[in-house]
Structure formats: C-alpha cells, structure tokens
Amino acid sequence: YHEPYPPTMRVLLLTYGTRGDVQPFIALGVALLATGHQADICTSPQYGDWITTAGLGFRKYCGEDPQTMFDYCIRKGLFSLSFMREVSSVAHRWMDAWAVVVREAKGQYDVIVSAFTVANFGVLLAEASGVPVCVAHGAPHGETSHFPSPYAPGWLRSSPTASPNRRNYLGHHLVEYLFGRLALPKMALLRAELGLPSIRGFHRGGGWHALLHAPRLYCYSPSFLPAPPDWPDDWRVTGYWQLPPQPYTPPEGLESFLATGPEPPVYVGFGSVRVRDHAMLLHTVVRACGLAGQRAVVVAPSLQPLPTSDQSVYWMAEEVPHDWLLPQMSLAIHHGGGGTVAACLRAQCPQILLPFFADHYFWADRLQALGLGPPPLSHTSTCAKAIAAVITATIGDESALVALQAMGQAMQPENGCAEAVKLLEHLHMAKGFPYTKFPCRAPPPTGGWSVVKALNRSVDFVFKQFMDRLNYQIRAAICVVASTGRRAVNRVIRTSSKPPQLPCAPSVELRGLPAEENRDRRNAALRRTAAITLPAAAYFHVVSCFPPSGSDNCIRRPVPLPAAIRGPSYVIIDFGHVTRGRVHLELRCTGPATIRIGLCEALD
C-alpha cells in the first residue's frame, strides 16, 4: 500500500497582528512552498515586503493598523468594560475590511488557514468557497478544564498547578462567545450577501458554531505544553512554526561588545509592546542589570534617541534574529510573547518575564510551573532592586538550567511546519485530519446510537429508556440526574462504520420492529423518502434530538446531527451542559434494528 501523493494545494493564510503574530504564518507558507504547494498570506500592508521576499503571494488587508489595536488592548485591558464599550466603532471598521477580503477571495483557494483573531471570516470564506478550513492558534486557547484560557479575565484564571476545574472551561467558553458575539451582526449580513443560509441564533448551524468544530493547529511545542486529554483529536499541537535560518551580519559594535567582558550579557527587549512609560521601564531594567553586575544588550526599535553613555549597555534600534542572539546571552528579560519564549527555550537561555497582555501571563505561569524560570514580575510596580535580586537568583539557579537543557533537547527534533503541512494535505484530500484516537471527551460506549455525557466520577446518574413502535418511530428518552454545569460539547463528534474499541459503561438494548405494510399514506410517503438503504442493513434517520433543560418545559433546540446514517453505524453525541431534565432523542428506522444507548462517565 502506498499513500497517494497529495495534489497541489492553493492555500490562503489569514492573519492579523504584530510581527510575532505574522511570522509563524510566513514560516508555514515557506514550508508549503518547499513541498510544492502555493501559499498566499492576507494581512496588513506593512508586512507585504517581508512576505513577497519570502516568495509568498500577498493579499492586502486594508483596515485598522494592528499595532494601534494592540496598544489599545494593552492600555484598556482585553475584555475590560472600557475596552468593550469603546472598541465597537473600531471593530466595525476592522470587520468591514475583512469582509472585503472574503468577497474578493471567494472560490480562489483549496484550503483556508485562519488565525484565531480572524477565524470568523476564515470559516465564512471556506463555507462560501466549499473548501476545508483550519484555525491556527499561537496560544493554547480551546475549551478545556486543564488550564485557563490565555485571553480570559484574571478572575477566571486558575493557578497553573491547579487540578482540572470548571472555571478553566468557563474562561475558554466566555472568550469564544465574546469573540463570536461581537462579529455576529456583520456575519449575518455577509452571509446573506454571499447567498449562504442565515443564522437564526448564535450557536445554530454555521457561523461561530462551525468555528467551534473546525480543525485546529496549535503552533507551539508539545514538549512544553502537550494537548490536554479533553481536546478533540482534530485539535493538534504541531510544534513551533519557525522560519529557516537566514544569514545575518551583525553590526561591528555588537560583535565587539559580545566578545568583551567576562560573562555573556543579558538580553532586554519587549518586542512590539509599547506602553506609556516604555522608556522608563527600559531604564529600570537596565539599572537592575547594573545592580546585579551584568552587562545588557537592549533591543528597542521604538525608543528614539538611544542612550549611549553607559559602556556596559549596548542599545540597538533594529531587530536582531533571536536564534542568532539568544544563544550568546546569559539571560533574557522580555514581555513573554510566545515567539520570544520559544526562542529562549530553543537556545536554552534562562528568562525573566514582565508580562503585559493575554498569553504573556499564561507563558510566564507555564515556565514557573515547569521550573524553567522564576515567577513573573509586574512591569508597573517592580523596582530595580527587586529585578536585580531576581536576575542574580535566576543566573545562579542550577536546577532551572538543567530543566532548560532537558526542554531544549526534547524540542530539538520537533518540526512544527512539516507536521502542519502534512495535516493540511490530509485535510485537503480527506476533508479532515487523520484520527489517532477516538475524538471525544469521554470513553464512548460500544453499540449503535450512543449518547455520551461527561460527568464527574463522584456524580451519581440514573439511566432509563423506553421504546415505542408507532409510525416507524423509536423514541428514546434518557433522564440524566447530575450536578449543574457539567462539561459537554453540543455536537456529533464522529460517525463510523466500526464500533470504537474502548472501555465503556454498560449499555441497554432497545429493539424496534418495522411497521406493517398497510400504513396510511403519510407513512407510505415516509417509507419512500427513508428507504434508501444498503443491502441487509438497517437505515436510521434522526428526527429530532433535544438537549436537557433545567425546567419541566424543555426548550426544544435541536442539536445538529447527520441527516441520515446508512448501515451499521456508531455515533457519539454530546448533549451540552446538563442541569436537571430530560434528553429526548427521536429516531426512525426502516427495518429491524437494535439500538444501544449508553452513558459514559469521566472526569471533567
């Protein structure tokens, strides 16, 4: 058996943000070119020359400047009340510009890869073009109870060493809801313009609901943060997306500065972060390096003019490749961006983080939890003496150096771009990722129709069902008693022609018989529409499926299900947040059939 050679793909990469947000997509585009595919990147015009120099196609986004938006988020705080109140006018202009991209790019590509920040438009473009879509994340955001969302408010972030909890899941869900709800009016208008079905509600058929279930690629190291066990199988942690090494000629002054001195200097740089007292912060960190007896290399393109009086500090107004500079440093002090954290890990360079925004705090907590660095410092209240003490302790921490060496060696064989390209090729050919495990959040029971609900092991549940043969219908009502707010997905996770070979809870069989031939005309019409069967195989058609409700009057909101299942099939359904109430599952069949309905328990 030989795996078929993947056909050439035309891939559109949608991204928005600062240099650290765009660079991984350029790296992925270069990897796609190296394997014979065609890749275009759509982003802000200031990155156009960089993209075209790498040999990629460039599609310009003409909207709000990402640096302005980034600075605004840092000043106001993401999802703060002032941010949500004042961002509406800016967000409308931002969405209008991306709507133009969707109109112009419709039908021109085979695969869409979209950054999470613009995933609404990536999913919509893919739906309008009839092609698969994949959402790319540089930070570990995705519904899980094992760690907090990097974008969640502080009161929804649990400790990095805390056990899995519902607060983590709530933070992920809140962020995804706010991102999607903000764009919902614009999405509705754009769907109508493109001739797509309307969205009646926030989570109904398409739109953000489709985004929640789209395949995802996470471009960070699985050695640094592996995928949690409650993520679906089509959410893949590939490894960092790195550009191939490029030749770099440093300034003569930098080379001579690195060559002098008894010890390597300290790197100081805050990337694209710009705060009101940026110059004061840099001078505080430089003074702390002096108090600790360390020289410093300060990369500050936004600071003009650069000071030149101190001979123990080398100031730079231009960017320096991290992969060239950081291996020559004894320590790095930075903001905590994902790209800088990755470069320090690859260089096995200790790091001190002064986080500003979103995922900066998450990566700082992760480094501390793994023993790879000290606790993060506040960029607003930490004085030079305190920073100097942390510098001295970090440079002399032998256990952290050993942990950094082990992490660097574990990350060395990873090739995130190559892994991502393989998955995109499979997505293009098979319209999905290859499964390596059964893609559900709880071990599914074997059997025909299986209803899986993730419950805490300590929660008791009651399971009962009944069967009715009237009018070709088999009705199964499942009463589940559980504590409020338990975790679930609200989607059909997978259909298969083979039962999953996994441990399961006991299941109960319900047997239904076909109706007699002398039914009324209504049932005869139903038989004609439902009798597209395989030889000697039962045929099931989902009539309705209602999630549980907390009141006696069940709100009937159908869960999206396959229109029909032919032959012996096994389906996993996850019903959503269980409070107290009834789950109603209604099926119709055209022949003798055995239906097994199982309930599986697992930790959140």
Automatic annotation (TrEMBL):
Keywords of this entry: Transferase
Cleavable signal peptide: none
SUPFAM superfamilies per UniProt: UDP-Glycosyltransferase/glycogen phosphorylase
GO MF term list: sterol 3-beta-glucosyltransferase activity
Annotated Erythromycin biosynthesis protein CIII-like C-terminal domain residues: 317-426
Transmembrane segments: none
One GO biological process term: carbohydrate metabolic process
Domain Glycosyltransferase family 28 N-terminal: from-to ranges: 11-134
Keyword Translocase: no
Protein name as annotated: Glycosyltransferase family 28 N-terminal domain-containing protein
Source organism of this protein record: Eutreptiella gymnastica
